[in-house]
Amino acid sequence: MADINYYFFVEHSVKDKEKWFMQLYAEEGMTVDKALQHPDWEGNECLLTCSSVDGDWTCCLWKAPNKTLQEFQGFIDRFTGDAVTNKTYVVEGGFGLKHLNTRGYIRDLINASQGRSSPGFLDGDKFWMVHHKITDREAWNNDFTFGIAKTINDKCATPSDCKMLFDKGCGAALTLFLSDNTSVCFESTPKDMTKEEFQKVCDKFTKGTAVNTLWLINDEQSVNVMNLSLDTWNQETFAWGNAQNTSKVVDSIGTEMPEGVNVASQ
């Protein structure tokens, strides 16, 4: 796998909600280009921010060219100040990133700072982040991940068929394979599904290979979530699944992963 240390995922534990949820870029006449010039970014690009419903937890996806994990950790600690504590991971691969970019992020951030709610996630009712702490890497590789690829090869004729990987009404919009034996998935469920019910779904899905922690996302208070898509995830996952079988042709659907982010080969 190529060196892709310029994508980082950060989990923020919020200590001071008043400081953390400050209004940025609220002044009249603010534009995307003006906001991008703000020195606090230090040349880094934020692509996604998701906040939990209770406000105790936030996560962000960043693109930070030519930075090591240690260098990026120093930046994010400066950027967030003392309002939160930060756990940073290197992104080693993923599905669903295709339409995430910093201009879309800044546009949504300006709207939020000026009192206009984000459209939020548009492809489902409830939106969750599932944190998978992998406890059995061999089983995760051979049973769980291989099983997904096999299902795609055996049963999925088109990207939309990847819906069969999930319970009815559920789907994935973003999967990130991270350092430290960790993966995170952003998923949607029907409106009436409880946390307890979805916990059982996730535990069954991962087949005992990971400890799964769920966070219900406040998508209207998140940033750039509107550019996540179940269809994009299905397309990229379908291409990956087909690529595990060299007898199938995969270049006909035109799916591209972001430069430098390889599909994880777990």
Structure overview:
It is a single chain. The chain is an alpha+beta fold and about 270 residues long. The protein is built from seven helices and eight strands, in the order βααββαβαβαββαβα. The radius of gyration is 18 Å and the shape is globular.
Features:
single chain; 266 residues; alpha+beta; eight-stranded antiparallel beta sheet; 7 helices; 8 strands; 29% helix; globular; disordered C terminus
Fold topology:
Blueprint: E1 7-14, H1 17-20, H2 32-36, E2 45-51, E3 57-63, H3 69-80, E4 84-95, H4 102-113, E5 126-134, H5 137-155, E6 171-178, E7 182-189, H6 195-206, E8 210-216, H7 230-243
Antiparallel strand pairs: 1-3, 1-4, 2-3, 4-6, 5-7, 5-8, 6-7
Brief rundown of the structure:
With 266 residues, the chain is α+β, with helices and mostly antiparallel strands.
The amount of helix comes to: 25-40%
What order do the SSEs take from the amino end to the carboxyl end, as H and E?
A: EHHEEHEHEHEEHEH
Q: How many distinct beta strands?
A: 8
Give the rounded overall mean pLDDT.
86
Computed structural class: alpha+beta
The major sheet is characterized as:
8 strands, antiparallel
Shape: globular
Number of distinct helices? 7
**Proportion of residues in β-strands:** 15-25%
Q: From the alpha-carbon coordinates, what is the Rg to the nearest angstrom?
A: 18 Å
End-to-end separation in angstroms reads 11 Å
Give the strand order, joined by hyphens, for the main sheet. 2-3-1-4-6-7-5-8
Low-confidence stretches: 246-266
